[in-house]
Write a structure and sequence with these properties.
The chain is mainly alpha-helical. It is about 60% helix and about 0% strand.
Length: about 140
């Protein structure tokens, strides 16, 4: 069993010494920490440029979204089980929410953006998303 994949049914855990994932396990597994870490590093590099191009921020964000979905799909693969679609979608949304909460590119150029909104959305998303238990 993949350590990243959320275990929700007893037959998935049976015989492998693996327990069903709790609310807190799901909370941790939904956050794509590796991709968020990469985002922080890349945006730090971009910020060193005197003229930061807003389009570059959106391109890097789009790449981050695609990389998150691909990374979670790869890390949750288990033989004889279908892809963990719910986990992939929630983790990809989590990446978007984290980027919004961290501020900076690409959102800092949007007229409506305020760091407070990002922080509030991050708290709400984290608390609510962990309530979602995928079927498989």
């Amino acid at each position: 069993m993949s350590k990243r994949r959320i275990v929700t049914q007893q037959f998935q855990a049976k015989g492998a010494g693996v327990e069903l994932d709790t609310y807190f396990d799901r909370l941790i597994k939904y956050v794509p920490a590796e991709i968020i870490g990469a985002w922080v590093a890349v945006t730090g590099l971009i910020a060193t440029e005197e003229e930061t191009n807003a389009a570059l921020g959106w391109i890097v964000f789009g790449i981050g979204v695609i990389m998150t979905a691909a990374w979670i799909w790869k890390r949750t693969q288990v033989k004889d089980l279908p892809p963990a679609v719910a986990q992939i979608v929630i983790s990809t949304l989590a990446f978007c929410v984290w980027v919004f909460a961290l501020g900076g590119i690409p959102f800092k150029n949007l007229a409506f953006y305020k760091p407070l909104y990002g922080s509030l959305i991050l708290i709400l998303f984290s608390l609510v998303s962990a309530l979602i238990t995928p079927k498989k």
